[in-house]
């Protein structure tokens, strides 16, 4: 009966508030209704309907399919004339349920054709001046002709095939429709002039060293099949230069002919190693396969410097095979030093490899291959065991680009041999990032042409984890820093970007070509969003399991953003629709603070507010059971004596405990003396957990995290009322900067005093 009466009294209080609000509404003009704009609504409107190809859980469906493209290629590098030529045979397997009338092939080198339209889509402004180098390039030089020269396209019988080139895409018109389950074999003969990638900042090309030798990093060098799938059909969006590549998996047999004095490595396993390697190189290679703690040099610096003095006119062919890869690339030069070490992987091992000129030492011999090895360990822990036989890091000026098993990376000492921290950490980080791309998107094969963040964002997040692991594994590399100084990942590092004007920016869920502030929005922001999920929203255990589930479900397949979003929820039992919407579909920001704090004391004496509500509803005090009343400090009912009131002094409460709580249980009851109502505000749009640090008068502290769902019914402010045995002297929201809160001026109670100009100057000049 007591419980019933207590509930009745509470209901009357609520009823009084409702009636009052209704009276106020009736006296005003009624507002129209609206669509569901709640930030916690489900993503049904944004997501496509699950089907036989992709399930609602985020896993591939029972009818999931993907095409396959197998290549046999003969490639020759003309070092003297800086020219690359090739003949390739493509076997295309139609594993889809659709009959195909034609095939689309990517001609990425046409981005550098004389008549390329890529420069025409970028606006330009008048400047007060320009560097002489840029002036010559932009206004005095002739366009570089680096596009494909297609010499022939033929079917398996040698008959010419009709084809149409549209900028960076080539349509192959087959003699008849390619039915489901059928294969089509055709060949392409081509050549192009190799570009200087240092000048045009391209992903592929050559650089010229001071002694006249060149280092070649060659990619996007062959006509490549486009993706055909259940989401886009043909992904034949033009390559304008920024958004990268969508490619099917296949097997490659590649013969690469280069000058006989070159050192070369590439995607795949070298098939004629004994013909290429000297006996000494073979002995070193065998030692490297057993060295798990340090790299073994295969080609020494002295040998590379000796080779650099010649210019062989003889040729040598390196033969490679690669299985189940989506692309192919290689690097070659007579200046390369070559080292390797083994990395334990599952029940076997893989090779971590580096190629670099003498100009890269001593930095590269110390850290490149170690960074490759450390990266493979971290990424495999976070996803799956690295499935390929090797991962190669190649030193290339101004580069940072990835391909299956091989990548190009910047970072070299100054000419006097000195190495700045910026150079060292920049090199290690770019190696971790580019090697990490083996996982995203080389294996978890998302569509880079459509969703840049799915490879760059996921990879940058995992890069942050790998950087921290590297710092722990090699503390001597980061001394005197205690932690690796990661540029992206921690929430606080994205605040400046999120605090900027977002009105002209686009959400993360934007096609790569159209992404504003590319580095922040395609790399840093999604990486930070995932790091916050891991550290603050989900916790590492749930996040890591779900992230690994996604990677394993979609390794060697083509996932979409929805497959990622759905899998993360499916494997964790955490509803994240609100999080995906706010972080990935909007340009909103986080700003949560303390709006107001009210202190209350308890008494058995009825207060004016309660009396007013009872009178309004015709209730007498005698109609209600004994109650405990809360009196706000500084209200008209507040009396100074209430500060010293103890729980046992409140008559109604004392009687209730005596009548209802057994004596042996009373010792376990808390003894709250202070009662607080904290009103939290949310000027920012993104709902986030409210992480609150309470500091008490005795110097102790307590942390409470209210889940983000606390904002589900009020998007602007929420209150929490609670009792405390100790007096609170400070309240701080997000004390460790976990949520990317852009404005911390409202995060503390009592409010921080704003310093005047003199105070700021005094603190700056007298920091102690």
Automatic annotation (TrEMBL):
Keyword Ion transport found? no
> Which molecular-function annotations from GO does this UniProt entry contain?
aminopeptidase activity
Q: Which residues form the signal peptide?
A: 1-21
Boundaries of every Peptidase M1 membrane alanine aminopeptidase domain copy: 382-583
Q: Name one Pfam family in it.
A: Peptidase_M1
Q: Where are the transmembrane segments?
A: none
- Its domain of life? Bacteria
**Keywords annotated in UniProt:** Aminopeptidase, Hydrolase, Protease, Signal
Q: What PANTHER family does its record include? A: PROTEASE M1 ZINC METALLOPROTEASE, PUROMYCIN-SENSITIVE AMINOPEPTIDASE-RELATED
Protein's UniProt name: Aminopeptidase
- Which organism does this record belong to? Aequorivita vladivostokensis
């Amino acid at each position: 009966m007591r419980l019933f009466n207590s509930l009745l009294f509470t209901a009357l209080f609520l009823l009084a508030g409702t009636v009052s609000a209704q009276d106020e509404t009736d006296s005003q003009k009624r507002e129209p209704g609206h669509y569901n704009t709640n930030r916690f609504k489900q993503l049904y409107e944004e997501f496509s309907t699950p089907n036989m190809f992709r399930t609602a859980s985020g896993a591939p469906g029972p009818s999931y399919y993907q095409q396959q493209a197998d290549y046999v290629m003969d490639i020759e590098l003309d070092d003297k004339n800086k020219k690359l030529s090739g003949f390739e045979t493509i076997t295309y397997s139609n594993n889809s349920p659709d009959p195909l009338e034609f095939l689309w092939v990517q001609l990425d080198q046409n981005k550098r054709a004389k008549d390329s339209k890529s420069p025409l889509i970028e606006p330009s402004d008048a400047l007060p001046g320009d560097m002489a180098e840029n002036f010559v390039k932009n206004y005095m030089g002739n366009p570089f002709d680096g596009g494909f020269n297609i010499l022939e396209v033929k079917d398996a019988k040698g008959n010419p095939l009709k084809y149409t080139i549209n900028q960076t895409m080539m349509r192959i018109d087959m003699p008849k429709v390619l039915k489901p389950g059928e294969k089509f074999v055709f060949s392409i003969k081509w050549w192009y002039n190799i570009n200087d990638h240092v000048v045009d900042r391209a992903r592929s090309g050559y650089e010229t060293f001071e002694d006249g030798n060149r280092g070649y990093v060659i990619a996007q060098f062959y006509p490549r099949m486009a993706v055909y799938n259940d989401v886009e059909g043909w992904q034949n969006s033009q390559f304008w230069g920024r958004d990268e590549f969508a490619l099917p998996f296949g097997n490659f047999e590649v013969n690469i002919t280069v000058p006989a004095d070159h050192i070369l490595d590439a995607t795949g396993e070298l098939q004629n190693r004994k013909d290429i390697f000297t006996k000494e190189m073979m002995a070193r290679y065998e030692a490297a396969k057993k060295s798990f703690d340090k790299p073994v040099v295969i080609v020494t610096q002295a040998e590379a410097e000796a080779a650099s003095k010649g210019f062989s006119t003889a040729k040598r062919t390196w033969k490679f095979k690669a299985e189940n890869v989506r692309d192919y690339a290689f690097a070659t030069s007579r200046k390369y030093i070559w080292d390797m070490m083994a990395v334990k992987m599952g029940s076997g091992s893989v090779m971590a490899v580096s190629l670099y000129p003498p100009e890269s030492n001593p930095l590269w011999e110390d850290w490149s291959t170690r960074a490759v090895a450390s990266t493979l360990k971290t990424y495999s822990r976070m996803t799956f065991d690295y499935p390929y036989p090797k991962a190669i890091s190649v030193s290339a000026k101004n580069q940072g680009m990835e391909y299956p098993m091989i990548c190009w990376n910047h970072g070299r000492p100054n000419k006097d041999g000195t190495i700045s921290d910026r150079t060292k950490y920049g090199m290690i980080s770019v190696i971790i990032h580019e090697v990490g791309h083996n996982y995203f998107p080389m294996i978890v094969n998302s569509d880079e042409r459509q969703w840049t963040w799915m490879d760059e964002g996921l990879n940058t997040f995992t890069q942050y984890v790998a950087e921290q692991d590297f710092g722990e594994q090699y503390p001597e590399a980061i001394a005197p820093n205690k932690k690796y100084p990661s540029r992206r990942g921690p929430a606080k590092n994205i605040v400046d970007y999120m605090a900027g004007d977002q009105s002209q920016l686009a959400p993360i869920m934007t096609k790569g070509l159209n992404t504003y502030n590319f580095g922040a929005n395609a790399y840093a922001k999604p990486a930070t969003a995932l790091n916050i999920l891991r550290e603050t929203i989900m916790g590492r255990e749930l996040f890591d399991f779900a992230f690994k589930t996604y990677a394993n479900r979609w390794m060697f397949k083509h996932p979409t953003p929805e497959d990622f979003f759905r899998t993360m929820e499916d494997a964790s039992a955490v509803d994240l629709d609100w999080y995906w919407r706010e972080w990935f579909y909007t340009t909103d920001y986080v700003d949560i603070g303390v709006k107001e704090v009210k202190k209350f004391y308890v008494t058995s004496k009825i207060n004016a507010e309660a009396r007013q509500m009872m009178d309004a509803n015709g209730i007498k005090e005698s109609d209600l059971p004994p109650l405990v009343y809360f009196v706000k400090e500084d209200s008209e009912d507040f009396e100074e004596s209430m500060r010293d009131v103890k729980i046992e002094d409140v008559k109604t409460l004392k009687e209730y405990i005596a009548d209802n709580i057994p004596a042996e249980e009373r010792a376990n009851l808390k003894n709250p003396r202070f009662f607080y109502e904290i009103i939290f505000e949310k000027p920012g749009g993104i709902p986030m957990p409210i992480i609150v640090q309470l500091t008490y008068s005795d110097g102790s502290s307590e942390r409470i995290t209210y889940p983000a769902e606390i904002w589900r019914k009020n998007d602007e402010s929420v209150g929490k009322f609670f009792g405390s045995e100790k007096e609170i002297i400070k309240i701080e929201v997000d004390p460790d900067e976990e949520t990317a809160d852009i404005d911390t001026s409202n995060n503390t109670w009592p409010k921080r005093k704003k310093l005047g100009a003199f105070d700021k100057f005094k603190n700056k000049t007298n920091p102690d």
